[in-house]
Structure formats: structure tokens, C-alpha cells
Design brief:
Subcellular location: Cytoplasm; Cell membrane
Strand content: 15-25%
Bound molecules: guanosine-5'-triphosphate, magnesium ion
Family: Belongs to the TRAFAC class TrmE-Era-EngA-EngB-Septin-like GTPase superfamily. Era GTPase family.
Largest sheet: 6 strands, mixed
Radius of gyration: 20 Å
CATH topology of the largest domain: Rossmann fold
CATH superfamily of the largest domain: P-loop containing nucleotide triphosphate hydrolases
Order of helices and strands: EHEEHEHEHEHHEEHHEH
Subunit structure: Monomer.
Protein name: GTPase Era
Number of helices: 9
Membrane topology: Peripheral membrane protein
Strand order of the largest sheet: 2-3-1-4-5-6
Length: about 300
């Protein structure tokens, strides 16, 4: 019996949703950083074996939105819970059950699909805290399974996938077996550059960044020529992004090139243009242009 289904991964920002999906896929398809609100779109990846096909949906962290981009992100995450076969709710073990998680638990009550609770980052906490979290959460919701894991170290992740498969219905292979994601190459390129900006910059600057790929060409010798606009919200941010003697921008460019060469398996030349688009996160037209469109 072949099993298949859609599995969405939801939770607060920064709990490790993208790390988990990447670990299961064995490939970095969704960017990761230690800053909250890294993921901005729903990203589908597809894991196919001879026995099953799981379509994962990595979603933006659910938070209280402060601008239109935030609203788009939270809506994307909520939408993902409709018409899926399984919901993976990730959180990190702590004694307290905070407001963010309480809000998500409320949303989950409308879910028709079974919900797993995944307590992630057990590598940086104690058994006692895991046990306490487990007790608190199970009072609030009837979870189909509760699994403590470390997405970073891969601890218990195989077990989690096994339980997912057990809970999936018999079904068809939705996608060809060699398809691993629904996102375009250009999207991954933009995201990888944004990841390097997120990792290089501090404070409020990285949250106001968007990346637009304006050119991507492969020469006959195989080298890619990539040009991107790195969009920020303020003139002062532009200065910070470029940095003293262009140091910061150079660092972003170099780390992006390194990772893009691995992703594209070719040599890469990259040019980054820093542009200011005031308040783009609240500008519906700019959001659309930058690919933050309403979900299908
Ligand atoms: N110690 C530890 N760190 C982890 C683990 N999983 C993820 N992280 C770290 O937590 C941070 C956030 O990880 P992400 O995967 O980007 O989290 P996310 O839930 O996708 O975050 P958003 O996209 O912002 O909602 C990164 O610095 C990861 O390296 C884990 O199991 N253990
Ligand atoms: Mg993420």
C-alpha cells in the first residue's frame, strides 16, 4: 500500500521549522538563521520513497504581525493548515506555555487533520524541562503524538518521519519522484543571498531586507552571472549594509557566492546592488513585485 499526503510544519518564529525540514530532505531548501521571521513564504518539499510520498510545507513563524509583510506571512502559515493530512506543531521545551504558543493552539483547534507536538532543541535543554513542557502541552490539546527531537543534530528525526508515515492515508504519488521542491531556482538564489544578509547584519536592518534577482545567466563555460537588488527600508540601513569601506557588503557577497556555487554546482559571479524602497513591507504593490503574493 502506497501512502502519501501533505504535512505542514507550523510554530512560532525561530523554533526550528526550516531546520527540521532541511534535515529530513537532506538538503538545504529553506534558509535558516538565528533571527526570528526568517522564512517568509510557504515552501513545499517532496520526499519520495518506494513506499510513500510526503509533501512538506515549511511555513513562516506565527507571530503578531506589525506590517503587511507580517500579515502575509502569518496568513500563509494559517492557510497551510487547511486541507493537509497532518500538522506538525513545533515548539521548544520551556516551563512556561507562552502567549505565542497559546494562540497557535487555538488555531489548531480548527484543524481537521491530526496534530503532532514536536519539542525541538532538546540538545540545549534538560530532561526535566522536556517532561514539564510535555505535561503542560498535553493538558491543552489532544495531540496524536508527542516527540522530543533535535532537528539540528538529527536526534529522533527518523522516528518522527516513521510516525508521520504511519499517520498518512493510502494515496497516490502526487509529484514525479525526482521532484524535490515546488520553488524555482531563482527563488532559492534570492533566499540564499537574504540568508547571508540576515546572518551578517544586526538589529532591525535584516528584517527589512528583500532580495530581487534581476539577472541570472549561465555562460558557455558554465559560470553563472548573477545580479541582485538587495532592498532595504532606509538610507541609514543602506549605509550599514555596505559598511565601512564596503566591508559588510563584501562579506555578504562572498558568503553568498560560496553557497550559490554549491547550490548551482558551478562557478558564480555575483553583483549586489543595494537599494532603498521606503516602507516596502507595508506597500502592497512592492510586496507583490517581490513575490509576497497571496497564496493560491
Ligand atoms: N541547539 C539547537 N538549535 C536549533 C535546533 N533546530 C534549529 N536550531 C537553531 O534555531 C535557529 C532557528 O532555526 P530555523 O530553522 O531558522 O527556525 P524557524 O522555525 O524556521 O524560524 P522562522 O523561519 O523564523 O519562523 C537557527 O539558529 C537554528 O540553527 C536544534 O535542534 N537545536
Ligand atoms: Mg523558517
Amino acid at each position: 500500500m502506497f501512502k502519501s499526503g501533505f504535512v505542514t510544519i507550523v510554530g512560532r518564529p525561530n523554533v526550528g521549522k526550516s531546520t527540521l525540514m532541511n534535515h529530513i530532505m537532506g538538503e538545504k531548501l529553506s534558509i535558516v538563521s538565528n533571527k526570528p521571521q526568517t522564512t517568509r513564504n510557504n515552501i513545499q518539499t517532496i520526499l519520495t520513497t518506494k513506499d510513500y510520498q510526503i509533501v512538506f510545507v515549511d511555513t513562516p513563524g506565527i507571530h503578531k504581525p506589525k506590517h503587511k509583510l507580517g500579515e502575509y506571512m502569518v496568513n500563509s502559515a494559517k492557510e497551510s493548515m487547511k486541507e493537509v493530512d497532518l500538522v506538525i506543531f513545533i515548539t521548544n521545551p520551556d516551563e512556561e506555555l507562552g502567549r505565542g504558543d497559546k494562540f497557535i493552539l487555538e488555531t489548531l483547534k480548527n484543524s481537521k487533520a491530526p496534530v503532532f507536538l514536536v519539542l525541538n532543541k532538546v540538545d540545549e535543554t534538560t530532561k526535566e524541562k522536556v517532561a514539564m513542557s510535555l505535561a503542560k502541552f498535553s493538558q491543552e490539546f489532544n495531540f496524536k503524538e508527542i516527540i522530543p527531537i533535535s532537528a539540528l543534530r538529527g536526534k529522533n528525526v527518523d522516528k518522527l518521519v516513521e510516525l508521520m508515515v504511519e499517520n498518512l492515508p493510502e494515496g497516490p504519488q502526487y509529484y514525479p519522484e525526482d521532484m524535490i521542491t515546488d520553488v524555482q531556482e531563482k527563488f532559492v538564489v534570492a533566499e540564499l543571498v537574504r540568508e547571508k544578509a540576515l546572518r551578517t547584519l544586526r538589529d532591525e536592518v535584516p528584517h527589512g531586507i528583500a532580495v530581487d534577482v534581476i539577472q541570472m545567466k549561465q555562460k558557455e563555460n558554465g559560470t553563472y552571472h548573477i545580479e541582485v537588488d538587495l532592498i532595504c527600508e532606509k538610507d541609514s540601513h543602506k549605509g550599514i549594509i555596505i559598511g565601512k569601506d564596503g566591508q559588510s557588503l563584501r562579506k555578504i557577497g562572498e558568503s553568498a557566492r560560496y553557497e550559490l556555487e554549491r547550490f548551482l554546482d558551478s562557478k558564480v559571479n555575483i553583483k549586489i546592488w543595494v537599494k532603498v524602497r521606503k516602507e516596502w513591507r507595508d506597500n502592497q504593490n512592492l510586496l507583490k513585485e517581490l513575490g509576497y503574493k497571496k497564496n493560491k
